[in-house]
Amino acid sequence: MGAVIDSNVFIYAAVEDSEYHENAMELIHSLDRWIVPTIVIYETVWNFRKLGFSTEEAKELVEQILFDPRTSLADDRQYLLEGFELLENLSLTHYNDSVVLATAKDIGTLATYDKKLRNRAAKLGIKLLPEELE
């Protein structure tokens, strides 16, 4: 099974003492295809910086994502404008998530731990992974 992967899945997988570390690792290993919007890479690096990762550590983790044979970088171009449509009444603060949501709407499955994004995805009928949050 393949899924669009949100940045928080990669972050929880990378941070061993994080709340969802084990679950994120299991989730990542259970998927045979990772659809990764480029905006997710940017968000992941941004969060690695906030968490105190060194440039080299962040680079190594991004390389692991990019060069994993399961990774398929999404061609964001088709989703960039649809992201605006999915904003509805939300502010531009939610644009990145809207682009991820537009990608997941097309693919059909979204892996995320972001509760607000999960709620928005559920309203669009997108399958969610993990199926339930603890």
UniProtKB/TrEMBL annotation:
Transmembrane segments: none
InterPro entries from the UniProt entry: PIN-like_dom_sf, PIN_dom
Highest rank taxon of the organism: Archaea
Annotated PIN domain residues: 4-121
CDD domains assigned to the protein according to its UniProt record, in alphabetical order: PIN_VapC-like
Protein name: Nucleotide-binding protein
Organism listed in the record: Thermococcus radiotolerans
